[in-house]
Every structure is written in C-alpha cells, then in structure tokens.
Design goal:
CATH class of the largest domain: Alpha Beta
Shape: globular
Largest sheet: 8 strands, parallel
GO biological process, one term: carbohydrate metabolic process
Function: Is involved in generating a small heat-stable compound (Nod), an acylated oligomer of N-acetylglucosamine, that stimulates mitosis in various plant protoplasts.
CATH topology of the largest domain: TIM Barrel
Strand content: 15-25%
Pfam families: Polysacc_deac_1 (PF01522)
Number of helices: 15
Distance between the termini: 31 Å
Number of domains: 2
Family: Belongs to the polysaccharide deacetylase family.
Organism: Cohaesibacter gelatinilyticus
C-alpha cells in the first residue's frame, strides 16, 4: 500500500470509527452526492490489479443501495439535480448513481441490483469503445502486462531499450505506471496506433478484447428500455480533452452525443468528462460544455454537491466509490464532507 492510499484509508477509518460522520454531515454534507462507479463485477483474485480502484463487487453495491436511504438520502437521477437544488429544502439530500465508460459488466451485474432497489442510474457511453474505434489504454496495458513476463514496447513509448521485464508484481506495477503516464499524456491521435502495436506485439487482440469489455449497441438498446436508466455522453473516443484544441474538444463531445442520439433515438441530456480530473478537464472544457444543450456535466473532482453548484452545472464533483475502500463506513465518512474539505484545501467547491 502506498503512502497516499494509507493516509486516505487512515482518515476515512478515523472518521468512521469515531462516529464523527453523522455529527459533521449537517455542516459539511452539502445537498447531496453523485456517486461514481465504473465496473461492477466479482473480484478475480489476481495479485496484479492496477485497475482495482475502478471495480466494486455486486454485493457491496447491493449493500450500499440499501444503506443510503437509511443515511438520509433520496435516490434521484443525475438529470434531476438542477431541479432538486432549485426547489427542495436544504434539509433534504439526494444521491445519484453514475457509471462511466459503459462496461459490459454494468448490464450483467449492476442493473439487476438497481432494479431490485428501484434506483435510477446513468451510464456514460463512449461510442468508440462500443464499436472498437477507440481503445481503453488502462484496460489493455493491464491485460498485456498480466499475460507477459517480457514486454516488447512500441518505439513511441520506449524509454527502456525496446522491452520491459514484467515477471514480478513489482515489475508489472512499474510497467503499468510507466505506460499509463505515456498514454495519458501523448498526442491523442497517436494513442490508438501505439496501443494496437503494443497489443499485437504482445499477444493481445486489442479490438476484440475491448469490444468484449464494453457494452454493445444491442446491450445499450436493452438499457434504454429500462425507465431507471439514463444514457449520457462521454465523448466519441475518450481522449484527454485538455490536450486538444477548442474545436477538437467540441467536435469530440458533439460527435459522441450525436452518435448516441442516432442509436437510441433521443438526445443525451448529461455528460461526463473523460478522466475528469483537473489536468484533463478545466475551465475551458467547462465553458465549452456549458454552451451545449445539456442539463449538467460531471467531473471526477472529489466533492459533494452544494447550493453554489447550481451556478456551475457543467462542473459537478463526484464521490468515487473506490474498489479499494469497499466498506460502508468509508463511504459514510466521505459523505460527511470532511475528507473533501481537506482535499480541496478548505474550499467547498472546486471549479478552477
């Protein structure tokens, strides 16, 4: 466990174990929380799981959906948040479910649980993932590293003499960190080709593996029939928007929205920024999204929703339900608001 994660867990455990959360929440708990999920699936038990933070178990989701109303939250859809902030009393709190990227396991494992509890949910789709026109580097490099003890590296990401040793978990984690940094920051137009080459050289069928990981359009059409489900945009190809020009940012967002509209017959009302943290989505991206006909947009910046966010609906924060912190007490500690106040250096909202 690295030091940052140890500190995070220590803070959450302290708040949870001392009973501070219910005391702090009336002061710092805001109007509600947008919960962020990615994958919902049983634990595979691998010792090398660099994306474990993106996965939670179906059992934990089931438990959390049961507990949130007991903690004083009303389940609403993401698109209902502006109206909730404008019309509901301050003593009422909402919770909204979001799932990023459109993983196939959402339909298999998560949707039955949402239906069981009658909880609305929003799935943010990347048409490029559905059709194999974009590749999720974080998923593919995990698979490539897991399957190999020595990696052949494409020239564009090579700083290790053409190959990397990945026999031990320590070596695998080091390689994942190295490659992840390259793919997040490289010229976005080169990501697909480089990833395809990396996979081809190391025995992974990139497009096939990616398409098996994400929802198909048939799956999406099945979701659309569920009145609890909202489909949101997440760009066409999931690039780091901050590395694109103004026109390219707009084109990516609009193209994704338009392709979803063509497939499901209705225009998405909500949007999630790819990656969504400060270095990948900031004031410029918020401005561009605010000029589109959307109800709201979410980041991955940590925080609760406050009254002030009604003036910044293109930059809403979320609570990451982290696969490394699958305990109700940890979530309750986050909902107290104190961890976010500390993380945001005393600011209730972070829109810079």
């Amino acid at each position: 466990m690295d030091l940052i994660r140890f500190f995070q867990r220590s803070v959450l455990a302290t708040i949870a174990n001392t009973g501070l959360a219910p005391v702090i929440k009336p002061v710092l708990g805001g109007r509600g929380a947008i919960l962020m999920f990615h994958r919902v699936k049983p634990d595979q038990g691998h010792s090398f799981q660099p994306n474990a933070h993106l996965e939670i178990s179906p059992d934990f989701l089931d438990e959390l959906l049961e507990l949130m109303p007991q903690w004083g939250y009303e389940w609403i859809s993401l698109k209902e948040i502006p109206d909730f902030l404008a019309t509901r009393s301050r003593g009422e709190r909402f919770a909204a479910i979001t799932l990023d990227d459109g993983y196939a396991d959402n339909l298999e494992f998560a949707v039955p649980i949402f239906k069981k509890h009658k909880v609305p949910y929003t799935v943010f789709l990347v048409p490029g993932f559905v059709e194999g026109q974009a590749l999720p580097w974080w998923i593919l490099i995990e698979e490539v590293i897991r399957k190999n003890e020595t990696l052949k590296l494409p020239e564009i990401v090579d700083g290790l003499g053409g190959q990397a040793t990945t026999k031990t978990d320590v070596e695998k984690k080091r390689a994942f960190k190295y490659l992840g940094r390259h793919y997040l920051t490289m010229d976005q137009e080169k990501v697909f080709g480089s990833l395809f080459e990396l996979c081809q050289e190391n025995g992974v069928e990139a497009v096939k593996f990616s398409q098996e990981t994400f929802l198909s359009w048939n799956d999406v059409n099945a979701l659309v029939t569920d009145p609890l489900c909202t489909i949101g945009g997440h760009t066409e190809l999931h690039p780091s928007l901050a590395r694109l020009s103004d026109d390219a940012v707009r084109d990516q967002i609009v193209a994704g929205l338009d392709q979803i509209t063509d497939r499901i017959g209705s225009e998405p009302e909500v949007f999630a920024y790819p990656f969504g943290f400060k270095s990948t989505a900031g004031k410029r991206e918020f401005r561009i999204v605010s000029e589109l006909d959307l109800t709201c947009a979410v980041t991955t910046r940590p925080g609760l929703v406050h009254d002030e966010h009604n003036l910044h609906l293109s930059a809403l924060p979320r609570v990451s339900v982290n696969g490394l912190f699958q305990k109700p007490g940890y979530v309750q500690a986050l909902l107290s608001g104190l961890p976010f106040l500390l993380a945001n250096k005393g600011k209730r909202i972070d829109i810079d």
